[in-house]
Specification:
239 residues; mainly beta; eleven-stranded mixed beta sheet; six-stranded antiparallel beta sheet; 1 helix; 4% helix; 42% strand; elongated
């Protein structure tokens, strides 16, 4: 039977043997078959099922998604040597020597997000579609909406439903931000013909985009990380 080798930063943690006819769940909660204790991992993050003679990895609508060989997937037929990234951990799928292997099949690739690490952003860049272009919208692209998801300092998501969204200390702001030096209106996110732009407005504390202070208006790209005062958020688009 195939072996899943769980690793963290190239350090082997454990081997897990897969069995035909048995599903294996992966996640942060203790009731999973493979437990990964890391906050970047959802409670029930993914599962592996046997289908015929093969094994299929399925993402369980996790917040940070599943990568196989640095490609974002929703489901994927596992092949010998596949490297699965879940959070900051890897799972290497290998058939044992001399074991029969099913014909290779292609898994389906799809888009997801939200973890903020250089490795995660690098993998997203390799697999995600180009940034939204509202200048020439397709039927599906025209239905996409900008979203800011909290990474810290809050919970959930904020849909950018207005043409101009304000971030700042003012209680009337669309996103209220606390912290030393944060202005009453510290920054704005505006919807323009070619996408969403973030701009610094006022206050000693400047809004940062991917770690760099925003001085002028900057076009937001998929999975950009915004920091201001007490909050850290990630931008993406969805239907």
């Amino acid at each position: 039977m195939p072996i899943l080798t769980l690793k963290f930063k190239q350090n082997k943690i454990a081997d897990h043997t897969l069995e035909k006819g048995k599903s294996v769940t992966i996640g942060r909660r203790k009731n999973n078959d493979i437990v990964i204790e890391n906050l970047a991992v959802s409670g029930h993050h993914a599962k592996i099922d046997t289908v015929g003679d093969g094994f299929v990895l399925t993402d369980l609508q996790s917040k940070n998604g599943c990568f196989v060989n640095e490609q974002l997937v929703t489901s994927h037929w596992l092949k010998h040597g596949d490297v699965i990234n879940i959070g900051k951990h890897t799972l290497v799928f290998n058939y044992q020597e001399g074991e029969d292997r099913p014909p290779e099949e292609e898994g389906k690739m799809d888009q997801t997000m939200v973890m903020d690490t250089p490795q995660h952003r690098d993998m997203v860049a390799k697999s995600a579609p180009a940034a939204l272009d509202l200048t020439h919208p397709s039927e599906s692209a025209s239905q996409l909406k900008g979203v800011l998801a909290y990474l810290s300092g809050g919970e959930g998501e904020v849909v950018l439903a207005k043409k101009l969204m304000k971030l700042g200390k003012d209680s009337a702001s669309d996103i209220v931000v606390s912290g030393f030096g944060v202005g009453q209106t510290a920054a704005t996110v505006s919807m323009r013909p070619n996408g969403y732009y973030i701009s610094h407005v006022g206050g000693l504390s400047k809004v940062k985009l991917n770690g760099e202070a925003v001085k002028d208006s900057v076009l937001l790209k998929e999975f950009d990380v915004i920091e201001l005062g007490s909050i850290k958020m990630q931008f993406f688009t969805k239907e």
